[in-house]
Q: What sequence folds into this?
């Protein structure tokens, strides 16, 4: 299972506590994980990536294994530790403000 | 016994204020959707327990929340606001063309007759409609065809912020956009035309242009749908012919800059504004928070000050943050950027703070319940 940690506001919106666990068929990429996340929690559509362009929203970041994957290609494989469920994929609300 | 429910949207969540018809003691509940911006929060005239809320965030975008039980429980509905076809471009601040891009919903206007039909005003300016209780949204693209390529955002963004439905003519809709002006449709939103004749705005190259005016709010009394009142960026205006022409009724106001305008529930010639010093200051003149009331549809105004701070007050009152109830005497309510919600149970003669320390108030709507 793929583990995903959501920011507080999205956990509230999706009515989940703690990590979300997802089953992903095939390659484990940002796109396939977000597809699975949105399929399980439709209210999250549009919150992490734009409805139309599917591009990541500007103030949402994606971290895993102490790496910033925000600018990685959506179809690039995620780290093996994420694919194996050893490490979570972190969806993060960017620090903004003062 | 009747009761009043005041729906308050703030920068950090929604609050519901309830009272019996005396309007002397209030219960405050919330925040709902804490931490999110609630640009607007509105009930259906056809089913008062059906509420719609526009919930947005600079991080996570737009949500529409719906309640079927008067705000006891909520569920997110559709949040896909996709412009119809290729929306093209509008003017950017530097005069270059800029593609239309959805940012948020500023205003939700439920149908007068069908709880499942609701209109939504967007930034970048567009009008959307749902006929399935907010699950799906379709743009009415005719709005943008009215010289939309020439519209340019004001300082607050290029938002469609006002939607007024005509109770005597289900096909007629009025909207207002910053900084494009006021528009009318007589065919349920398919085609539109500008209704800005008589407006004069010194801040645009052609002060009497057909479009480009920064209209802040328009208001209509249900008993006289051909009469409209407008708070423009500067100037309080009136139309007696459904927007075909406008004339100024600022009269003896201390300043005619402001945002909200509201009409007494039972006296269609009694109107309320909150004068603000200027667009450079965005706070009341002399540090005095004063609502001004005209009982003759404008021109002659009286200051309403009893119960409102008359020194050291530097809050603003935003365009959607004033509303009335339908009790007798009429109640008037407004919220400030300082987080106060004031209420008057005597048509504005006196005011009391219902709550003082909310986040900055973005919108105030009122439901009068049997």
A:
């Amino acid at each position: 299972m793929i583990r995903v940690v959501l920011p507080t506001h999205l956990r509230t919106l999706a009515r989940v506590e703690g990590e979300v666990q997802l089953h992903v068929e095939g390659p484990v990429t940002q796109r396939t994980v977000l597809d699975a996340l949105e399929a399980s929690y439709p209210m999250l559509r549009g919150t992490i990536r734009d409805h139309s362009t599917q591009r990541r929203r500007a103030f949402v970041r994606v971290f895993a294994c102490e790496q910033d994957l925000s600018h990685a290609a959506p179809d690039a494989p995620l780290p093996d530790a994420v694919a194996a469920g050893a490490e979570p994929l972190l969806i993060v609300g960017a620090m903004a403000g003062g | 016994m009747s009761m009043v429910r005041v729906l308050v949207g703030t920068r950090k969540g929604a609050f519901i204020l309830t009272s019996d018809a005396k309007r002397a003691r209030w219960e405050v509940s919330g925040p709902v959707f804490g931490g999110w911006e609630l640009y607007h929060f509105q009930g259906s005239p056809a089913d008062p327990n059906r509420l719609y809320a526009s919930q947005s965030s600079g991080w996570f975008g737009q949500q529409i929340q719906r309640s079927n039980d008067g705000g006891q429980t909520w569920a997110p509905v559709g949040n896909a606001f996709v412009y119809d076809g290729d929306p093209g471009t509008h003017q950017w601040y530097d005069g270059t063309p800029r593609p239309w891009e959805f940012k948020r919903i500023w205003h939700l206007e439920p149908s007068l007759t069908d709880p499942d039909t609701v209109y939504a005003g967007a930034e970048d300016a567009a009008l959307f409609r749902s006929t399935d209780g907010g699950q799906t949204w379709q743009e009415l693209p005719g709005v943008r065809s009215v010289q939309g390529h020439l519209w340019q955002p004001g300082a607050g963004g290029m938002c469609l912020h006002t939607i007024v439905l005509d109770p005597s003519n289900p096909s007629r809709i009025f909207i207002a956009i910053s900084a494009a002006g006021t528009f009318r449709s007589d065919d349920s939103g398919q085609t539109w035309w500008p209704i800005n004749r008589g407006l004069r705005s010194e801040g645009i190259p052609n002060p009497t242009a057909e479009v480009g005016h920064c209209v802040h709010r328009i208001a209509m009394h249900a008993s006289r749908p051909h009469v409209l009142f407008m708070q423009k960026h500067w100037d309080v205006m009136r139309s007696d012919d459904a927007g075909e022409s406008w004339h100024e009724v600022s009269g003896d106001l201390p300043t005619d800059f402001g945002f909200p305008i509201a009409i007494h529930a039972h006296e269609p010639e009694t109107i309320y504004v909150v004068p603000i010093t200027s667009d450079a200051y965005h706070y009341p003149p002399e540090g005095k928070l004063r609502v001004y009331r005209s009982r003759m549809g404008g021109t002659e105004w009286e200051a309403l000050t009893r119960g409102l701070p008359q020194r050291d007050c530097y809050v603003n009152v935003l365009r959607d943050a004033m509303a009335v109830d339908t009790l007798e005497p009429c109640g008037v309510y407004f919220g400030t950027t300082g987080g106060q919600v004031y209420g008057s149970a005597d048509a504005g003669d006196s005011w009391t703070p219902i709550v003082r320390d909310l986040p900055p108030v973005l919108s105030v709507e009122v439901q009068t319940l049997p």
In short: Helices of chain A lie at 8-14, 30-40, 80-83. The mean pLDDT of chain A is 95. The interface with chain B takes residues 7-10, 13, 43, 45-48, 50-52, 57, 59-60, 93-94, 96 of chain A (CB under 8 Å). The two ends of chain A are 37 Å apart (CA to CA).
